[in-house]
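Could you show me just one protein sequence together with its fold in token form as a worked example?
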Amino acid sequence: MNNTIELVLIAIGLCMDTLAVSIAAGCFMKPYKISLLLRFAIILSICQAVMPFFGWLAGETIIEYIKDYDHWIASVLLAFIGGKMFIEGCHLKSCDQEKTNSFNPNSLWVTMTLAVATSIDALAVGFSYSALGRNIGSLIIACAITTFLFAIGGLFLGHRFGAKHKNIAEILGGVILIIIGIKIVIEHCCL
């Protein structure tokens, strides 16, 4: 029972960045279709589930090569997208103004970038599972399910908020992504 609780807490911890990113994405998902919601959530879920598997497979060899800069990769990706969102949000004059956003959660490139950026920390968790001799299968399933649920929930929350306050939502979404990027660097430097 303790292993199950630990597993769920790890999965929730790993997908908190996904929740924040999904809220930001929900603000700008247009058109707001079930197929797009599912695609976004599935891509984030798959990436969050695959990263621990790669970490588990990698063992000490690959982890040694990337552990010094994995946090920078995630931070740069999030800061880039967040910065563009922030700048565009500051230039919107009204919620009704038609504008092409660089933060387009319907874009496969944006979705894949967010998926990788929010799941890099799961690589280290997979490595630790390998070092401890734990079963990676249960972690993969827990990460996939939890991330999917948090992504869908975040998209719905973001859509409700963003429909009325697009410019504020874009600025806030950008700030959230930048803060997540900074948090990743701080956590890595302090550990």
Observations:
- The helical segments are 2-14, 16-28, 34-66, 70-91, 108-132, 136-162, 166-190.
- The two ends are 29 Å apart (CA to CA).
- The chain is about 85% helix and 0% strand.
